[in-house]
Design a protein that fits this description.
heterotrimer, A alpha/beta, B mainly alpha, C mainly alpha, A: alpha/beta, 16 helices
Amino acid sequence: MQQNQNADVASCRTWSRSYLGTTPKMPLRAVAAASLFASLLVVGGCGSNSTQSPSGTTASTGVSTASTSETSTSNQPTGDTVKVGILHSLTGTMAISEVSVKDAEMMAINEINAKGGVLGKKIEPVVEDGASDWPTFKTKAEKLLTQDKVAAVFGCWTSVSRKTVLPVFEKHNGLLWYPVQYEGMETSPNIFYTGATTNQQITPAVEWLLKNGKKKFFLLGSDYVFPRTANAEIKAQLKGAGLTPVGEEYTPLGHREYSTLVDKIKAAKPDIIFNSLNGDSNVEFFKQLKAVGLTAKDMPTMSVSIAEPEIQAIGADKLAGHWAVWNYFQTTNTPENKKWVADFKKANPKTPVTDDPMEAGYFGVYLWKAAVEKAKSFDVAKVKAASDGITFNAPGGPVKIDGKTQHVWKTVRIGVVQPDGQFKEVWNSGKPIKPDPYLDAYPWAKGLKDKLQT
Amino acid sequence: MVITALLLAPLLLSDFRLGLLGRFLAYAILALGLDLIWGYTGILSLGHGVYFGLGAYCAAMYLKLEATGGKLPEFMGYSGIEQLPFFWQPFRFAWLAFPLAMIVPAALAAMLGYFAFRSRIKGVFFSILSQALALVMVTLFLSQIGLIGGTNGITNFKTIFGHDINDSATQRAFYFLTVATLALTYVLCRWLVHGRFGKLLLAIRDAENRVRFTGYDPVGFKVFVYAISAALAGLAGVLFVLQVGLITPTEMDVPHSIRMVLWVALGGRATLIGPILGTLLVNFGENALSESYPAMWSLMMGVAFLACILFMPRGLMGLVNDANRWIKNRRERSSSTRIAEKSVTSHATTETIENSVV
Amino acid sequence: MNSGALASNLFNALSLGSILLLIALGLAITFGLMRVINMAHGEFIMAGAYATYVTQNFFQSKFPNFIGWYLIASIPFAFCVAALLGWLLEATVIRRLYGRPLDTLLATWGVSLILQQLARTIFGSLGVNVQSPAWLGGNWKLGESLVVPHERVFIMAVALGCLAGMGIFLYYSQVGRRIQAVMQNRDMASCLGISTRKVDALAFSVGSGLAGIAGCALTMLSSIDSNVGTKYIIDSFMVVVLGGVGSLAGAVAGALGMGVLNTVWEYETTASLGRVLTFVCVILFLQWKPQGLVATRSRALD
């Protein structure tokens, strides 16, 4: 033990002695290593002004970036390109979810550029890695807004990353297009929410379940903001219908031992499990359900965080027959979607899956383009002013910006998981639903706002 | 000279780059503390993120209560907590909160250190335990959504002592505070390692049993220096929260803790300038790489770390020393062997280099 | 605890313990022999898991009639992939850092960063899963509250198989005895003509290969992505600390100990608090037996 302890120090000494006694010369290996490290840094440093071109290669942007030096204060592009930021976790635990949204956004940018760009300018994406680390998200947001002077940022996934960058966007008057369904109770003047808010996902799902005779709800979620808030809203909605859930349970993020919990669920005999478990926890939960002989028929679940990539990761065999609610499925039957799915598969043969947040990220870029063209300017205030009522035929059906809340009208869809890992739609809202982040239009949600607003 | 450069930095850098520099300088305080226990005492802690995080949480709790005006933070609201939990009470007062930010981590470190060093757990075994501590604490913090904010951590601060915390004047003040704290920490560490105490630490690192046989009890010294190191990490956490405006459990996690050790390794352990240099270099390097190669930067960092550990075991400062010696040897080529023999003890040379750099 | 809960807790403890044992067996060899903490061990697990995934896809496209057997075929394949990676790592990195265990730890962490990024580049960032063969889909009902899924039994069987295999290899084969000799006294073994360099390389490959098998077993419990290896790895390090270094018995005792502690505390409190209490228990235990549960005796100082 003792020897090993000191060996690392000792070896340094022997190592230095080995060349000191003889002819003095610089240790080549060390010089090589130092120069490798230094060259990496230099490459990085020089490259920090270059951006990722749409085709994925690094290209120096030359003249076009000269106008956006550190001293300039306006985000008005003067060259023949306009910079936008893409801010997602490309490394770390969240990369599983966020990389594909980045791919979808890049695809939209490529398509727009191929057709001549926005206001005659090519879009130049500046891709940054949030690294699944929230302070990094904040740093990168600051960098995009103050160094690159981007006209808009498309990015974030988790609620915490959004909340982290929110003050940065408000301080520097940036524009964030946020593509993921979230818990509602928020409107920021500097964020456009293209994912669903509660009344476009959870509320209609509960209504649909109630209509289908499900009375005994069991609420199950991972222990963080989204499930906590969502379940508070569900409880209020059930209370409005004169019901209380038969159980409510939270497990830590990444929890994987569900035998006790499934026993509890069995004892509570619910009609429906409303599931907001996150990621890998679902693997063990659904396995355990199956193991104790509860099939989708006896004990159906309605999930709000399981989309096509999650099915691929969890295994379609475990999920077949269970429900999920989204605004978009890969199987959604619109001409736009057929083309989109085919194009995406061609562009990303390694990850040929599309899902709801990817779709929201994709059409977010188009909504921004339409708003810019209507405003005839990249200026944030003008784009915001022009945004109300902008429509786009997204793969998941027509969407429309609601200028007041800066959310999007979207169609709600409930699907049942098929053994091939795709959804079969069993219900949709028929038309886009107006976003209502504070649930003001619902009598049962009275007072909820004060309790949940953050 | 270094100090002057740091003091002039606000004139030259944009707010954004200055913010980065300020945060990295806060990290450098932690790196100095880490160097005290690793470089000088030979204890490798892979859980320093925990102490950093505890300090940061202490400051964050104070700032949060100032932001809510004494009302309950929002995460307690939706978790059904009606009353401010008892352990939040001291953090209503700044004069309690900020000292606690150093005392809490130091106390936890002293406890772990006492139990571990007393039963003579050391080397990789201690590293594993400290790593497990990080894992356990992160799991605990993640699960306590109602009490300390869970994954979201604590954020949304508004003011500090009545000043807007996001204002650039306030942020500049925090920058100067960080530079001053780092300078003080440097002086403290220098004083610690250059006296009898420092010699003893080196002795414990190189031959703990001999120290024991000469009548010293290494346990007390190890616990003490480990606690100091944790307190410095807590201090760094406070400065981090002031400048970044949030703290979440990810900042305490194992990968982050290992990264901290690498700052010291790259800069050069058992020197005092090395860790500061390493921290700045790695962080700015990481930042620049991830800006240019957002998808591949982690691979490049991995390669760089690997290369440095393999080929530069004493870090940058070791390289500087070698270069210095090489020049000296060339100059006095005729009597080279004798001089080289004399300067073998690397610490003596380290000292001269340090003096010349500062 | 009534008898039903006791039985189901016992089963859960064994189940968790067997996973930890699978991972720790590999660690016990690399750590016990070379005193090297291999932070990339988790990524070897990942490599094994992806190897299983590749095998499944291969069977699906080439031998759809034998799809039920892909899991069996994937075990040696996962072992070979991980062993090859381990051999490469030993030859290029670890050998150069001999005698600097803390540096090895940091260098292998760099390797783990590289391997994770490579996995993302090769397999994409999305998670994938393997479908358990039909013969592992069922479960046995033993009494009221005890349901024993076949998958868990399979993992236990694999763990036991690996343990037996390692036991025979280490204690009865010539190569294994050499490994043991080097473990116990490197200098003496070297004097007696054993090539410690060869033994190191071999033992490290075998230890890494075991991580590959662990990865194969983990695919039954979890989806596969670039982070799959990091989930159990620190607990496995704790197994080594708790069990003691240098013997298989130590690994077994440590794994069971961690399994029981975790399960019992989780049952009595919550999952996260359970981990804290487990950690405290290990620290307190080390006060009593700093060398771990099964200590190899040594007359050397320390």
